[in-house]
């Protein structure tokens, strides 16, 4: 049996073109060939992130840079905006880095309220805010623009935004939104194999980092800035993945960013229309649904684990049975990355084929 086609929200399915791109000869990372490769990816990444600043490339998963942002930026206290597994964990990570941290915690499935962020920041004492834009565990997309406007109205407070499952699926323009650090791992919305994260750092973020003690080395933003000027990385990067990143960035620009956003919105609608037929409801409130994946509340009359198993056994397609404390009571279907109208229809037809057997 071949491995199943993935419709889980990360890692997602990888295209043959990406695999092909990775099969290129190794090059020395302190030489002209590498610098040319690095430089060739920059303009495209800048366009995708909506920034004129350099985009740094970290050989790590997203958490490397998420923890790095805490270590580089937090001097007094960080406010973690928590609404699901990834955003909640950021608070724990901040504390485990020995930083002062407080959180705004909303129930899983709810979005962060910009007004609550404003009241909390009015208490003072905070110098950094973390936000997960698209909470992959609950399928909630937070109001990034409104929250960034609130945070930016407090001088000296830096905003760090995780766009792991939204970058290139919906617009997240760094410069326009005034985000200090925007980061993403590449194995979700960017549809690459895991192992890289991309991120930006504003001037204010780099200035802050310069006076923050205990930044360490591997995720020191100043090291990334210094090496980035020479089209390089602080330590040996995953060069094969950079080849893949180059291929993907070129492909995204060839598709066109707006066309890519439109495709994600349309595919997401297709999945929602499927769910409507069965009366299956989004876990996210109306208006805050993710565009790159769907998280549904499991109907009481559905045997979810039997359903998911049968979809895999009969059709070799994998969907996800919920994450963390909402495992089983929710399930998730990804439409991010390389999916098309045809691939989503094929997946939905497989669900249609199997589901009657598991509804009571
Ligand atoms: C998957 C995910 C992460 C964690 O990524 P790792 O690759 O495991 O470090 C962080 N944030 C969001 C929103 C995610 O979806």
Walkthrough of the structure:
By secondary structure, the chain is α/β, with parallel strands linked by helices. The chain has two domains: 111 residues, Aspartate Aminotransferase, domain 1 (Alpha-Beta Complex), CATH 3.90.1150; 239 residues, Aspartate Aminotransferase, domain 2, CATH 3.40.640. The protein is built from 13 helices and 13 strands. It has a seven-stranded mixed sheet, with helices on both faces. Strand 3, helix 4 and strand 4 form a beta-alpha-beta unit. The longest helix has 21 residues. The chain is globular. The two termini are 30 Å apart. 45% of the residues are buried. Bound molecules: pyridoxal-5'-phosphate.
Using brief descriptors, characterize the structure shown.
single chain; 360 residues; alpha/beta; Aspartate Aminotransferase, domain 1; Aspartate Aminotransferase, domain 2; 2 domains; seven-stranded mixed β-sheet; two-stranded parallel ribbon; 13 strands; 42% helix; 14% strand; globular; binds pyridoxal-5'-phosphate
């Amino acid at each position: 049996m071949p491995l199943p086609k993935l419709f889980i929200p990360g890692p997602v399915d990888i295209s043959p073109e990406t695999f092909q791109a990775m099969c290129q000869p190794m090059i020395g990372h302190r030489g002209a060939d590498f610098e040319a490769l690095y430089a060739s990816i920059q303009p495209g990444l800048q366009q995708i992130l909506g920034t004129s600043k350099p985009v740094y490339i970290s050989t790590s998963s997203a958490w490397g840079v998420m923890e790095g942002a805490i270590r580089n930026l937090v001097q007094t206290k960080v406010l973690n905006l928590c609404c699901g597994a990834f955003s909640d964990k950021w608070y724990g990570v901040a504390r485990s880095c020995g930083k002062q941290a407080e959180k705004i915690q909303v129930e899983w499935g709810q979005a962060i309220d910009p007004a609550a962020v404003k009241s909390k920041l009015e208490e003072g004492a905070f110098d950094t805010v973390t936000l997960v834009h698209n909470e992959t565990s609950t399928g909630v997309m937070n109001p990034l623009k409104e929250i960034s406007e609130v945070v930016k109205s407090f001088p000296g407070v830096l905003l760090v935004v995780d766009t792991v499952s939204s970058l290139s699926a919906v617009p997240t323009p760094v410069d326009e939104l005034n985000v200090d650090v925007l980061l993403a791992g590449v194995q979700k919305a960017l549809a690459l194999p895991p192992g890289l994260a991309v991120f930006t750092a504003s001037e204010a973020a780099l200035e802050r980092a310069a006076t923050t003690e205990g930044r360490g080395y591997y995720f020191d933003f100043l090291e990334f800035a210094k090496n980035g000027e020479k089209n390089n990385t602080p330590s040996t990067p995953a060069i094969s993945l950079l080849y893949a990143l180059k291929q993907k960035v070129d492909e995204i620009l060839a598709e066109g960013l707006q066309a890519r956003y439109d495709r994600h919105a349309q595919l997401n609608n297709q999945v929602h229309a499927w769910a409507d037929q069965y009366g299956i409801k989004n876990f996210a409130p109306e208006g805050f649904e993710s565009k790159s994946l769907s998280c549904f509340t499991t109907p009481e009359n559905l045997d979810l684990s039997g359903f998911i198993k049968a979809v895999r056994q009969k059709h070799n397609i994998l969907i996800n049975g919920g994450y963390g404390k909402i495992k089983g009571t929710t399930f998730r279907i990804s439409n991010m990355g390389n999916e098309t109208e045809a691939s989503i229809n094929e997946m939905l037809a497989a669900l249609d084929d199997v589901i009657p057997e598991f509804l009571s």
